Structures are given as structure tokens and as C-alpha cells.
Amino acid sequence: MEALGVSGSADVRLGLFSADAKTTFADKNAINSFSSFIAGRCVVLNAITHGEGFTPNGNASPLIAQGRMDEFKTAFGDMFVRSLRTGGEFYVVVRITSVSIDHETKLTASLNTKYNNPLAGGDFNAEFTKAMQETNNQTEITVFMRQRGGQGDQETFTGVDATKILDKLSEMGTFAHQHPIAFEAILANYDTIPLPVPPIIVTEAIDEVLQDCLDLKRTYLKALSDIALALSENGDQLLDNIGDKNNLSVMNAAFRSELNKLIAHAIRVADREIDPPAHFIPNPNLPPLPLPFTKRKFSANPDLDLFQGHWINSNPNGLIQSLSISALDATHIAVTAKYRGFQGDFLSKADWDPAAKVFAGGVTLVPGVTSVNNATLPIFSNYTVASPTATGTAVVVTNQQGTILDPTSSVDTFNRN
């Protein structure tokens, strides 16, 4: 480890690029107890390059301008690279292993001499061939190399050749200059450069305007949802006071147009195109909010106020001329009626029919008479009273009147008197 320049107390403040990989190389080629090793290294350090005139790039500038510093730090971190050291490094480890300690020692000494002085005498290849023959091929030499810096032909494997290794060591300076790698950096906090962060009063104003736009957007979306319900097939059965459906369509278009303008305004405020930020001014011609719709009340019992009172038939030739209705209890009414062609008032009770949503009742106008030689059939009136508009201004009476053999049906509208 120390021969390769790897220290257990490496300075992590600067060593951001090469320490882990170099340690992995050293661990992978750790020495054993049965081989001999030769280790060599060359580290080239170029001059530290210092940056200057730092400015935010096109991705960072909008975040800073809008005061979105939390998003800025998520994207770009808390620090930036102010200075960078580049260079190159070359490491070689030769492992010699032989069953003959004598041959292993001689080969190690010979190769070490060649690495330190290529002009020294002796033929390493001849010595290695001799060792292989005398140990029955039980001698091996393995070369491990690691290079960072250089490109293409500059990164060729040297093998055990001392000349190639020395050439590589001598040329690493050129390689590291032409094609360096970055392996040390100096970081700095963003506080050290003048970022154009808007004043707090501006960011607060932007937040306030955007929150107001969001609240208004929700109001418009709620109005559009209410209009959509009113325009639905069952809208007039679910809601009261919805008015004409053509008007509802006009209202729907108006709110959608206003919503589009609101969203466009909010985007321009967020992008600082509107500076200083300004609140959205709604169109004063929009229908007033909240809309006048009300949910139709549901009850198993009728709204008796819709039925009680005195009613006059709008048809002057109707069978029933007038009605007076009063409540008996939650589901029963007393009906006093005047019939055309009959004297006096006729009192009857009508019961609420929840399925048909009408009051149904009946009264005998002329009782039947039976004698020994003759019979007169009774004349009856079976009626229903409905309030289809639920406005309390009119009721509709369906009447079946006459004898059982010859009844007459009529449907008349009665107006409140």
C-alpha cells in the first residue's frame, strides 16, 4: 500500500477522484507470503486550475431569480468546484513466484536492477528461461498495471519489459498534460459568489400572488364542476335554481376562459415576467360567486307549504272549480272542493304517495240509490294533487269523475289565490 502511495490517513478534503480506485487496485494485488514483489509508481500533478467569474447556468438562473433556493440546492447541491487539480498516475506491480527460492531471489534482483538501470548488464529473459527449465515450468511472473491519464496508444500494456515500463514512466508527464484526469478538487460554498437572489420582500410577494392564484383557480374549478352537474341529464332533478341550460353553457365558457387567463398570469408571475408581481384581477362581468344553485331537498314526506292554501282552477270549464287544502299531519291533507254542477263544498282526505309524489284522495258526490225495481249508481271523484314545479305557486290536479261505468278524466292547473 505505501509503495503505491496509498495512505490510511488520506486527506478526504481534496482526494475526491482517485483514492478509492487506487486503494481497490492495491487491495486486489496485495502481497502474499510466498512470492516476491516489485512495485513502481509515477504520479504527475499539473498545476491547480482555479475558476473565476462564476455565474449560474441556464438551468440554475430561473430557480435563483424566482427565489426557489430549496429546489436550487436539490439540483446543484450546497457547494461547487472552485479549483481542480489534474494530472495522471501509473502503477505497476510485478509478482514473481517459484518453487525455487534461489531462482525467485535471482529473478527478483535481476528485474529490479533492470527497472532501475536499463543499461545494467545481465539478460533477464535468459535467466527466466533457465528458471522455467530447472523448476519444470513452476516459475511464473505476473504484471499488474494501472494507468490514469493518457488516451489511445498512450494506454498500452507494458508487460514485464523493463524498457517499456521505463518509457511509460518517462512519458507520463506528457500523457498527463495532453489528456489529464481530474482527481483532486477544492470546493466552495455558494455564499462565496454573488448569486442574484431576489430580496425576501420580492419572494414573499411572489408566494402571496401565486397562493392567491391557486385559491382563485380552485374557486373557478368548483364553479365549473357545479355548472357541469347542472348541465347533466339529471341536473334539474338534483339542483334547484339552475335556470335556463343555454345560460349555463354561456357561464361554463366564461369561467373556462377566465381560468385560462388566470393560469397564464400565474406562470408569468412565477417566471418573473411580471415584475413586480401583481395580483390577478378577475373579470367583473363574470357571474357572481357562489352560483345560486341549491341542492334539492330530499325527504320521505312532502313539503306541505307547497300544497296548503286556496287554489283556483285556471280552466273555467273544469270539473273542479276550487280547492282549499290544509295539513292534517306530515303525510295527510284535508281537501275542501267545489265541483261544477254540484251544490256545496265537498270535504275529503288525501294521502301522500311517496312513489308518485302526489296526494291521492276521493269523495262521493252523489250516493247511489237502490230500490226493488231500480238502482242509481253513485257519482264519485278520485283525484291526485301534485306540485311538479315545487314553486308553491301552482298545483296540478288529475281528476277522474262520474259513475263507475262512465267516468270522465281531466287534468287542470290550479293557481294560488
Structure, described:
The structure is a single chain. The protein is built from nine helices and 17 strands. Helices cover 31% and strands 30% of the residues. The radius of gyration is 51 Å and the shape is elongated. Mean pLDDT is 82; it is low at 5-21. The chain starts with 18 loop residues before the first helix and ends with a strand. The protein is an alpha+beta fold and 417 residues long. The strands form four sheets. An eight-stranded antiparallel β-barrel has the order 8-9-10-11-12-15-16-17. Strands 1, 2, 3, 4 and 5 form a five-stranded antiparallel sheet that branches. Strands 6-7 form a two-stranded antiparallel sheet. The protein folds into three domains: 19-192, no CATH class; 200-295, no CATH class; 304-416, Avidin-like (Lipocalin), CATH 2.40.128.30.
